[in-house]
Protein 1
Amino acid sequence: MARYRVFYAKRAGACFVPHIVMPTVFSRSAARAGVVFKLTEGFSPHAKISFGSELPVGVVALNEPADVWLEHLDDDLFERWKLAMPEGFSLQSYQELPEGTPSIGKSFPLSRCLIKSRADSNLLEEFLLRNEKIISCVKCEDDFFEVLFENTMSFGALIRLIISSDVVKGWYELCLVRKNLEGLPNGQ
Amino acid sequence: MNFPEFDNPYWPILAQVQRPSRYSGSEWRAASFKADSLSFCLAFPDVYEIGMSYYGFQILEPFLSSLGVNVDRVYCPWLDFEKILRTSSLPLISVESKTPIKDFDAVGFTLQHELGYTNILTILDLSGIPIRAEFRGDKDPIVIGGGAGALIPGPISPFFDMFCVGDGEAILPELCTILSETRGMPRAERLSLCYEITGVYVPSLGKKKIKRAILKQMPPVPESLIVPSVATVHDRAAVEVFRGCSRGCRFCQAGFITRPVRERSARDVIDGVLNLVRTTGWEEAGLLSLATCDFSGISEVMGELSSKLGADGVKLSLPSLRMDGFSVELAAELHSVKRGSLTFAPEAGTQRLRDVINKGISDDDIENTLSLAFSKGWNRIKLYFMMGLPTETTEDLAGIVTVSERALAIAREHKVGRPEINVSVAGFVPKAHTPFQWEAQNSITKLREKGRMVKGLNRSKKISLSYHEPEQTFLEGIFARGDEKLADAVEAAWLDGARFDNWSETFNLSRWLGAFEKCGIDPLEYTQARGFDEIFSWDFIDIGVTKDFLLSEMERAVVGKTTSDCRLLCERCGACDGSI
């Protein structure tokens, strides 16, 4: 048995599959591909998987990490697993983790996201620039803002703050993407 | 940066509704869409997580695909999504290919429950398809109804172009060929050609004798199933072990309209389950039928599957158990079954009434089954009963509590720690095509009185007894033996906002009473006792079992005479001519 870190994306309809069922999505697709999970102990054993910080529904995810404990994984099996994922989910890459590797939460304490308002882009920019929880905010093409923040504040909490500050009327006025989770810069 | 998701006009809508995963697809399915093929949308008149538990679509989707048909599905939008679709003027689209429903060649509804009728109109209307068949043009999809409700089509016949009566696999090959070859032809001509097929009823062309289409042999087990990415009510890989039922419980419509029994071989079931678990990745497999413990190959299947699936950590489940020792032993063999809860359906509180309904369970069976269940380690038992059954007395109702108390006493005799007896009592609805189709249905007031009486007799805190509120039962009873006159009321109630009537949170009886009044319909006409000389609106449909047999069963019921399982003794019900 070994621990692997798999990176995956959620696009299109998969963005509306809630985070809580992600372990089932992974374990079923793995079973279809012949990838064998280590099971947890206890009364109701299930596949041992650990995900990053929760992603709210409606958020496009480009490169999310998941730690999986498997009997074995190689390039062939990984390709089979990719083909067995449901529509909208795609596996991007994997790496075997040496023992003692910190958890996803400890390895990636930062989120890098793209946020765009379908309403007033200036209001959104103003909000993001003055929010002290946001480490950096850069305007990108197509009126997206790339923001970096610590995962002590969840992405969902940030969105709720944007809404409650009347920057937008609701989730439907936002385009949300999590580009990736990140570690702290070297030396920190 | 390219994010086509955000250009999708449905994206901001999904961000505003409850459980957007109901509409977003993202399933696992080995599908391919073929250009220029006939396109068929399977429609389920309830929400996604209920509809995905319906095994019929899991059978029909690969079956239609094997005929070269492009298949997709649609489920009824919940109230919030319907509201937004209406204000945005976006059409309802299918789950997988996101095709507007009105662009399909055919839309096939499954009619599982009378209280889903208004949802049919919602799906049609949101799709831009005229809800009444008479107003549809040549370019509108052919709207088809199948399933149990197709055998009592009256209340919804104006909304359908045709009904498929019987096994879909027996009708669809010919039907799809005709629909495919007649594309572009006038609608009336196409329907007329379809009306020649055994099992097809076209309301606009008038009634004629419709013989239920029966598949003589079970079709092959599907190679794969659609796997949802979200939780559904029944979340497992399932194989149908047989169709039909030989027990002859007199209240059970499903048993009579699916006769005769047709079984799969044990080998096919075993190989089917193992293959499906492999191709779907499901953690649980189920064996489906009306009475799985009656399957002749059950011991062989359970023996082989329990060990093979157990080795891979896959659970095997049985959806229903007969109240006999054999069933409990089977359940006990399922090592993976948590010794938590077992469910049984005695249905009636006394032997006398169980004989009236031909349930085939004796007091000894109940006693022995419960004893075995507790001795095997179960501590929670759920018991289902009905109230309002024909010839029922207060003694029979009190018997429900007696059986429940006896269950608790048996648990204590076995020194079960913290036993729980959960009892659910539902109102009886006389159904068409059953021996009780002539019986009166208890009124709302009567059912509520009976429910309160039974609940009041329960003194034990270890017995949790609940009864169904009778308003939904009342409405179900009207449509269960309804006719064409009711269609106007269905439309009127729908226009008044009736939706998801089988959900207690959205059901509103006053809407329906208002609709009946507006249409000049007395709903009590449908729930009262019916004359033996009455020609029912469903009599033109020949289910196989004869009306004479149903009448003779009713006569036997009244005197408490039982009829044996037809696998043991043929009573010539008419369903089987010996060729099956």
Protein 2
Amino acid sequence: MVFRPRRESGQEITLPWHRPYGESVRVARTCAPRGRHGMFAAPITRRDSGRVAYDKPIPPKGLHTQPFWDGAKEGKLMLPRCRSCNRVHWYPRLICPFCHSTDIEWIEGSGAGRIHTFAVQHRAFGGWAKEVPYVTAYIDLAEGDRMLTVLRGVDAEHPETIEIGAEVRVEFEEADEDTHIPFWRVAEGS
Amino acid sequence: MAAQLRNAAAIVGAAESNEIGYPKERGPKVTSLQHHIEAIKNVSDLTGIPISDIEGVFSTGWSQQLAEHLGIRPHYLDTTTVGGCSFQVHVHHALAAIHAGLVDVALVSHGQDGWS
């Protein structure tokens, strides 16, 4: 079995990586952010209306992504588009990754897309552990470029039923007051 | 060998990001990534070398993220991190890569939104 160090008294010393994932762990800041919204975040408990709290990591917001989050709160999929080359890119960048112009505007996307590829996840930690197995997918946006997502409306236990090219629609899930996160759901009849 | 390396390449341009700190009164601080991208855009404008021509990316751990952000597919990546002199080491490595014929255009980039 695994060697567990002991104090002189015989008491076992539990090191942070012996605890199950999902528990809040205090570690020195090395690479990935820990803390409330970091990789090993503790579940956020709320006492209002008994609603199930969102206990998965919440993405931080950058200055140049604020229009996306503002639109997400209203259920709109805002996408950055370059005025110089008219191409939409994802994820939002500080300059267009195609023509490198800084002239970027935000447009409201149609919320439609098609599955480009997908994978089934069987192992996860933190808030995602209880959703396993689940399907991650790259979605070809109708407006252009690709978005990574967790696919809804599919049976992760039977990935053979998921079709490449199937039509999907975006839906938003509330993580907290300022953060509505887009997920994609396979449209009916596809 | 060292003498050959000295003449293998030249630094053709250098530029900085636009602004440091809080550009708007207590608005969001300019992030490290923003410093990188602004400086890269500025040096590209200054030298006339388009960003799509960059074949090697050298930074202290940001190279992968920079390449993806810029939409380029470099032939050479370097993330040597040895403290404050890392960027001179990047120039040395870029010199070696160019001398070996692996790349023709190399980018050394740094951006930091620290307090000192």
